[in-house]
Each structure stands twice: as structure tokens, then as C-alpha cells.
Design a protein that fits this description.
Elements lengths: L6 H9 L23 H19 L3 H14 L4 H13 L3 H14 L4 H13 L3 H14 L4 H13 L3 H15 L3 H13 L3 H14 L4 H13 L3 H14 L4 H13 L3 H13 L5 H17 L4 H14 L4 H13 L3 H14 L4 H13 L3 H14 L4 H13 L3 H14 L5 H17 L3 H14 L4 H14 L3 H14 L4 H14 L2 H13 L8 H13 L3 H13 L5 H8 L7
Helix pairs in contact: 1-6, 2-3, 3-4, 4-5, 4-6, 5-6, 6-7, 7-8, 8-9, 9-10, 10-11, 11-12, 12-13, 12-14, 13-14, 14-15, 15-16, 16-18, 17-18, 18-19, 19-20, 20-21, 21-22, 22-23, 22-24, 23-24, 24-25, 26-27, 26-28, 27-28, 28-29, 29-30, 30-31, 31-32
Length: about 575
């Protein structure tokens, strides 16, 4: 069937290598001239015509048109000339002129196949579907047994929402070439579209009768029963197919949907596994099924062993199929078997070293394994394969930062900044922030603050950067008003984030606003999650309580901080001395 979207392509393929006259100056068909020319005029006509053909082949369309117009001055009735001019005007975007000349060509030779096709194409391109249909219908008089005529009509009828006429053309094709799968399926789809399901089903049943050994038609009939809410009839057909063709994978896919609808998930999964094990499905179909059912397969704890056997089977059978390894890797990660998952991802980057997402998964999994050394090494390998992917430089710089290789982190971050795209503002901000953190660790605070400013300028809503920058300024007691403004943004965005509330409280503490400091540190304590390390916040709480003259509770908070692991000498002195001397 010719899809309506492909109609222009269909015409283009037909016309691309054809001219009304061949390169040997021999007409493809007999030209019917309405005008008898003298020998001199005929000689001049032929000269300019074939000169036009030559210029057109050289894609010198304007010059070709001029040459053809010399012919037109001699004989404007020549059908071949008008068709050639019509094609050139169409190429030049002059749609009206193209149609006018092609209409003249068809009027002169109404039974010329190529002239009619060109006119249909011109009408279609100009959204004159009714005219295109009229021309195509006239072709059935001259070519009543040519399937291409009806294929063109089907496409035009569908574009014009004349579905019953499209079905009639399909019937005509069927009368010419016999019952055929593509014709019956297209009729089925059209009948469904016009809400004549019974007639559509009749087309499928006709296929079943014509090809009784072709079980996929029977499976489709069962699927239609499922859509009609007749599951018992569907199951009867599926079981019948299994009896005659037990290796048919498609029936198991349909059975899976039946069991899902029947609230029998175990049987549904069993059917999917049978489909995936079938040799009658290729790797493409199996990957499609895995994509749809992978989550259920991976999370079904009752079938872990069976699922793993399936993945191993698929990996062994399709060792170069990336997606199969990917699903197996996800399964292994779900089982917390991270080294094996990493091995699968390594296989994937060996198969396709340009796959960005695989490299990212591999690097992130190494981070999750608390292995920054390996994360840095994998990041470098990825950069060698995809040197213009800035995310990789960021991940490598993170690994170097975790390894306390701060100079290397600065260098790698700079390399990432140099190649980053203008649309990646968020990533750019994160890289600047990481460079700033590295400079801060190297005790180059002025350089760190420059990078933090770059990070904020790149993304003013990067609240993690805003918080860290504000906190460092508060520790240095530098530009506290700027620190307060930045910290306020973070608290507004995440009003229950203990870290951001602690920073905000500490800035007020450094400003000497102990009342507000106490208010926000208590909000931080109220929202402290169980997995959060409370050491620093408890120490800050104690300091703020002390300056609010609640010495007893302050010492209590300092002791809790020390017990939580924040065992610094400074904190121990505060506990031993019940605080420090107030100004």
C-alpha cells in the first residue's frame, strides 16, 4: 500500500530518472502532434527541445525553461513539451504555471500514463485533491487492470477522508491480484476507522480461510475478541493456536495481555518468558518485549532465578546487542550485584564506545560503589571517545575532588567549561561551583569566590551553590549581606531543608542577630532527618543558645554534637569551659 504521506515520494521515484524524451533523442512514447511543422520548424523545435533536456539534466533549470520556451514559440500544442515545462515550473516553485502546462499535456494525450502522474503530483502538491482524484479516476478507463492506478487512488481518497472509496479501490486490487495480507489489513483498518468493525473482522476471517496454516491471522482474530470484551472466545483461539503451533511467540504475547486483564499476573509473566525464549522472534522483537516488560521481570521476586536464566540466555545468544546487556545490567543492579552490573556496562561501551548514556551509567555506578579512582579512570576513557561531551569532564572533576586531587579537578573543570554549550547553563554553573570548591580546599579563597560568582551568574537558581557560597562567606565573616541574600533564596526554595536553614541561621549569628539566628536554627533542628549527620548543626545550635544566654542548654547541645562525632578541640574547650567569654 502507498501511504498518503509517501505519495509525493512515490511520484518522485517514478519521475526522477525519466524525461519525456530519452538521452538518445528517442521518444518514450509516440508523440501526438496537433500541428504539422515544416522541416525547418521541426529541426529548430528538436534542437531547442533536446538542448532543454541537456540543461535540465545539468540542473540549469532557468536556462532549460528558456530553451523550452523557444520550442513553445514554434509549437505550443506539443504534449511532451508542455509536460517538460510543467515539471520544470514545478521544480522552480511556480505551481500554477506547472499545472497549466501539465493540463495541456494531458488534454492532448489523455491516455499518457506519465503525463497524468505528473499532473496528479502537481495537483497534490498544490492541495487540489479533488482535481488529483478526478485525473486518477480517469486513468482507470485507460488502465483498468493496473494496480498502481488504484494504489494512487487509495492514497488520495484517504487524504480526502473518502474511506469507502478507498475500500472500493482495495476491492478492485483484490479482484486483480487475489486475496493478499496487505490489502486485507488495509481494508480492516479502514473499516475500523469508519466504525464498521464487522466488515473489518470479515477481512481477517477471509485471510484465515485463505491461509489456514498461517496462525498469526488467528492470533489477530483473538486480539480482536479481546478488544470486543469477549475474553472467553479470545482464549479459545489462543489455545487452539498453541495446540497447532506451540512455538508461536505472538500468541504468548496475546496470552500475557489476556492474563493481565484476568488478574493473573503470574501466568502473564510466564507467557512473556515463553515468548522471549522463542527462536521465532528475532532480537529486535525481543528487545521490544523487554522494553515493555523489563520492570515487571526484574522486580518479580518469585522469578529471580528464571529471569536471570533468561537474561543469560539472551546475552549468550545476542552478545553484540547493547540493549540486552543493558536490561541485564538493570536486573543485576536491582539485585545489588554491582560488580557484575559494571561488567555488563563495560561490555556495552566495548560494543558502542560512542554511547553517552552507557558511559554515564558506568561512571555513576562506580561512584555509587564509592570508587572515585575507577570513576576517574572510566571518565577519562569516555572523554577519549566523546571529547566534546562536557558532562564527562564534570564527573571526572568530581572524582578528582573526592580523591583530594584539587589541582587536577580545577584543570579538568576548566576543560569542561571550554567546550560546554551555551544551552547547558545548569551544567556550566555546577562545573564553576566544583572549581570553586577545589580552590577553597587549596585555600585560594579569592579564586574560589570568583568561580562561585561565575556559577551564580550562569544559573542564579542553583541553590546548592548559593548555600555553599553563602556559608563560606559567613565562615570568613565576609560580605555578610550578600551571604544573607543568597541564603534567603535557598530557604525560600526549600523551607524545610535543614542544611539551608542552618546556613541562614549562622549568617544571622555572624551578623549578631541572635534572635533570628535562634529562630532559624530551631527550624533546622525541627526538620532534621534521621540520616543527616547532626554534628555541625548541634554545635551551631549550642553557640546560638549561648549568645541568647541559655548556657545550660548550650552545653547540652555541644555535648550532643561531640557525641555525634564532631570531636574537634575547639568544641571540647567550649564544653569544658561552659562556653567562652561574651563580648
Amino acid at each position: 500500500m502507498i501511504n498518503s504521506k509517501n505519495l509525493s515520494i512515490y511520484f518522485l521515484l517514478i519521475f526522477s530518472s525519466l524525461s519525456i524524451y530519452s538521452a538518445k533523442k528517442t521518444p518514450l512514447i509516440e508523440i501526438k502532434q496537433l500541428k504539422v511543422l515544416s522541416d525547418s520548424d521541426q529541426h529548430n523545435f528538436d534542437y531547442y527541445f533536446f538542448e532543454g533536456v541537456r540543461l535540465k539534466e545539468e540542473k540549469k533549470y532557468d536556462e532549460a525553461i528558456e530553451s523550452y520556451r523557444m520550442c513553445e514559440a514554434i509549437d505550443s500544442t506539443d504534449a511532451g513539451l508542455n509536460a517538460e515545462l510543467g515539471v520544470l515550473y514545478a521544480i522552480s516553485g511556480l505551481k500554477d504555471e506547472a499545472i497549466a502546462h501539465l493540463e495541456k499535456a494531458v488534454k492532448t494525450e489523455p491516455d499518457n500514463w506519465w503525463f497524468n502522474l505528473r499532473l496528479i503530483s502537481a495537483y497534490t502538491d498544490n492541495n487540489q485533491l479533488e482535481n488529483a482524484i478526478s485525473v486518477a479516476e480517469s486513468l482507470t478507463k485507460y488502465f483498468p487492470c493496473k494496480e498502481d492506478v488504484y494504489q494512487i487512488l487509495i492514497s488520495l481518497y484517504k487524504q480526502n477522508n473518502q474511506f469507502k472509496k478507498a475500500i472500493a479501490s482495495l476491492d478492485k486490487i483484490e479482484s486483480i491480484s487475489g486475496i493478499d495480507e496487505s490489502t486485507s489489513f488495509e481494508k480492516f483498518r479502514l473499516y475500523v476507522q469508519i466504525n464498521q468493525l464487522k466488515k473489518g473482522i470479515a477481512e481477517i476471517e477471509k485471510l484465515i480461510k485463505k491461509f489456514p496454516s498461517e496462525t498469526r491471522y488467528k492470533v489477530l482474530r483473538g486480539d480482536i475478541y479481546m478488544q470486543q470484551k469477549k475474553p472467553a472466545k479470545a482464549l479459545e483461539i489462543y489455545n487452539n493456536v498453541i495446540e497447532t503451533d506451540p512455538q508461536n511467540p505472538q500468541v504468548y504475547i496475546s496470552l500475557s495481555e489476556y492474563y493481565e486483564n484476568n488478574k493473573e499476573p503470574e501466568k502473564a509473566m510466564e507467557s512473556i518468558l515463553k515468548a522471549l525464549k522463542s527462536d521465532d522472534f528475532g532480537v529486535y522483537e525481543k528487545v521490544q518485549i523487554l522494553g515493555q516488560y523489563a520492570q515487571n521481570l526484574i522486580s518479580d521476586s518469585t522469578r529471580f532465578n528464571e529471569t536471570e536464566s533468561l537474561f543469560k540466555l539472551l546475552v549468550d545468544k545476542y552478545p553484540l546487542e547493547e540493549q540486552v546487556h543493558n536490561y541485564y545490567s538493570v536486573f543485576l543492579q536491582f539485585r545489588k550485584r554491582y560488580p557484575e552490573a559494571i561488567s555488563e556496562l563495560e561490555t556495552m561501551v566495548n560494543i558502542n564506545p560512542k554511547n553517552e548514556q552507557t558511559w554515564l551509567q558506568l561512571i555513576q555506578l562506580n561512584f555509587a560503589q564509592k570508587n572515585p579512582t575507577q570513576a576517574a579512570e572510566v571518565s577519562q576513557r569516555a572523554i577519549e571517545q566523546i571529547p566534546d561531551y562536557a558532562q564527562l569532564y564534570y564527573l571526572k572533576a568530581i572524582a578528582e575532588y573526592q580523591l583530594e586531587k584539587y589541582d587536577d579537578a580545577v584543570k579538568t573543570g576548566r576543560e569542561g567549561i571550554n567546550i560546554i554549550k551555551s544551552t547547558e547553563a545548569s551544567l556550566k554553573s555546577d562545573i564553576y561551583a566544583l572549581i570553586g570548591d577545589s580552590w577553597y580546599k587549596l585555600e585560594q579563597k579569592d579564586s574560589a569566590y570568583v568561580e562561585y560568582d561565575n556559577a551564580v551568574n550562569s544559573n542564579s537558581q542553583n541553590i546548592q551553590v548559593l548555600n555553599n557560597y553563602a556559608y563560606y562567606l559567613s565562615l570568613d565573616k565576609t560580605d555578610l549581606k550578600k551571604a544573607e541574600r543568597m541564603s534567603a533564596v535557598t530557604v525560600e526554595k526549600e523551607p524545610k531543608n535543614s542544611t539551608y536553614l542552618d546556613t541562614y541561621a549562622w549568617i544571622f549569628f555572624q551578623q549578631g542577630n541572635f534572635v533570628l539566628a535562634k529562630f532559624y536554627i530551631e527550624r533546622a533542628m525541627d526538620n532534621l532527618s534521621p540520616e543527616y549527620d547532626p554534628g555541625i548543626i548541634l554545635e551551631h545550635y549550642g553557640d546560638i543558645l549561648f549568645m541568647n544566654k541559655d548556657d545550660k542548654k548550650a552545653v547540652e547541645m555541644w555535648k550532643k554534637s561531640y557525641e555525634a562525632g564532631n570531636s574537634t578541640e575547639e568544641l571540647k574547650n567550649k564544653i569544658d569551659n561552659n562556653g567562652w567569654k561574651r563580648d
